[in-house]
Amino acid sequence: MMKRFLEPLERAFRRGLVYPFFRLILRNRVLDSPIDLSTVRNVLILRHDRIGDMIITTPIFRNLKRLRPDLHLGVLASSSNVELLRNNPFVDAMYVLGSNPVQFFRELRRARRQQYDVVLSFVFNRTTSVALLARLLAPSALKIGHADVKYQFYFDRLVKLPRFSGHMVESLAAYIKEAFGIELRPEDLRFELFVDEVSKKVVDDFLVRNRMKRRVAAEESPLPYVLLNLSAKDADRRISVSQAKGIASHLSERKIFRTVLIVAPDDGEMATAVRTGQEFRKCIVFPEKGKATLLQVASLVAGALCVFTPDTSIVHFASACQTPVFGFFTTVQGMREWLPYRVQYDLVVAPAGQPASSIPLAEIIGGIDRFLDVTTQKSPARVTSVTR
Asked: Quick one: CATH architecture of 21-189?
């Protein structure tokens, strides 16, 4: 009741006071045509959101540097996704938007010293905060964003994207075309991750201790492994503990591979279930102790025969590593933008409007078996599209 009362007041406050105030003070230029990339010295990309969003942006980093090798490319990341940039050769500067005010002002000064010419906002759901960040980080830069036309006053150029009709990386390619007049080809849009040797060794040592091997290894004796991720950040994407138990138990019955489990550090319910449930006894949990880094997860995904996951971040890891992936999806938050990309995959999808936890276990098991029949036969990779 209170929420229904407050929401109209909040909207009226924004439209009647906040937006007119920003229209008055921002006074951005209005660009009606793309920017000539050859005239740009440095670009700052705002990508301070989720892990998967950073992965799908890697083709943009690569292609901007391919087109302008001397371009200085900076990225504003979040504390949760910045690790994925550590070894990326196409990113020249990283800035982290964290919760510590001292760190924020330090990063703000660093960015302002670079004097960026152009800011590209790839965060589409926080228009006001993103616009203010862009102005704080690069006061004199041309600021480009994607939002409803009523937010034009926040940006120098407002791009129009084909949202929800295709994959998010294709929307980012359309963004680059609108911003710079540059058309990226489908083959330009592959994801990529750069795993350091230390992260790879952690995973290799884990595999040796548990008598497993990577899918490309030539040895006959250790068994390969499949990776089962049990966690998802959003409630609608999470699978239930009973589903997790059924999937883990079913995979453990297969004799030609072993099953490795990963659970998000903040997923206490699933971690407890794994620790206490008999159905998980034959599976191996990674890491064996402590917390895995994102690049260790990337290395583990890269070595797996295939990946099973309800979480789209792990889907994007698999796409980047060219590891076949099977997803447990829901239509609640829209799914077309977050499908696996240019990799062999299949899905089971919850009934329309229902969370992933509503998918019948029998349907999940049937889909898994069909997928394994293909992926364990060393057949050529193919891309599978499933609609419902």
From this structure: 3-Layer(aba) Sandwich (3.40)
